[in-house]
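To the wet lab folks,

You asked to see what we're planning to order before we commit. Fair enough. Below is the target structure as tokens, and below that is the sequence we designed to fit it. If anything looks off to you, flag it before the synthesis order goes out.
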């Protein structure tokens, strides 16, 4: 990035490492940062930070507010992110992780995405076991029935939740489908507390599932990853184990989609 940045004596790190450290300081909560603040956060000297910031500004990686002198992310970053998102396919991203999860559980693994007030199955790996549950690709289901739907509904905003619950009738698929709004609201609170959802026979009799939420780069829930199989194989111990596994796998997919957790 030019000879002006060639003499970085603070560490053995290269220029690119320092540029990445600076970019990592910017978040949705910290959109504008000054030279001294960035120097403190990265551990670089003020003079080195200033030189790096000037180079990044000249190349459109950062932009500067001429009144406050603070810096924020520039248009070039937006262009790069657009290229990344244009080539992103949630199924391709999720498939290696789904394979690992299937090897752990030997049950059917399904990937659902949110579409309006429904969830749609966009990918699935069938269990190798002779007795198994299979969700067909393209299957569209409401969010109030089944683990995948409930976990998506639980992690939507309160406004989105209320809109869906007010407009979508809770029609039963089986005798275990939740058809009472009070019961559903209570269930959603529990799901949000534990981080995953489970269901027994809510849309297919004698079928159980455990699901965890998948988030997009905007930190909004965008889908769910589900482990499903015959209810007889889903004891409480198995549900808890699958819950932990599903949460880890779904978070791995979320990070690959560009999700970052909020700073504490």
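Sequence we intend to order:
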């Amino acid at each position: 990035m030019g000879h002006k940045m060639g003499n970085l004596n603070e560490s053995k790190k290269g220029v690119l490492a320092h540029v990445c450290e600076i970019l990592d300081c910017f978040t949705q909560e910290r959109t504008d940062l000054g030279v001294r603040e960035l120097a403190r956060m990265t551990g670089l000297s003020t003079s080195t930070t200033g030189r790096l910031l000037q180079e990044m500004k000249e190349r459109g990686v950062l932009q500067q507010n001429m009144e406050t002198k603070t810096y924020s992310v520039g248009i070039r970053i937006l262009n790069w992110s657009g290229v990344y998102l244009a080539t992103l396919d949630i199924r391709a991203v999720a498939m290696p992780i789904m394979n690992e999860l299937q090897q752990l559980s030997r049950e059917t693994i399904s990937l659902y995405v949110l579409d309006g007030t429904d969830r749609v199955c966009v990918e699935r790996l069938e269990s190798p076991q002779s007795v198994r549950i299979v969700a067909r690709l393209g299957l569209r289901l409401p969010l109030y029935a089944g683990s995948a739907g409930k976990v998506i509904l639980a992690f939507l905003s309160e406004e989105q939740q209320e809109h869906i619950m007010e407009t979508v009738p809770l029609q039963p698929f089986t005798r275990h489908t939740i058809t009472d709004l009070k019961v559903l609201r209570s269930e959603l609170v529990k799901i949000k507390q534990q981080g995953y959802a489970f269901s027994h026979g809510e849309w297919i009799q004698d079928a159980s599932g455990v699901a965890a939420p998948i988030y997009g780069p905007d930190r909004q829930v965008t889908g769910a990853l589900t482990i499903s199989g015959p209810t007889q194989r889903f004891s409480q111990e198995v549900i808890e184990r699958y819950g932990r596994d599903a949460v880890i796998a779904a978070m791995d997919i979320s990070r690959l989609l560009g999700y970052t957790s909020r700073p504490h």
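Structural context that might help your review: The first strand starts at residue 62 and ends at 64. Confidence is low (pLDDT under 50) at residues 1-9.

Thanks,
Computational group
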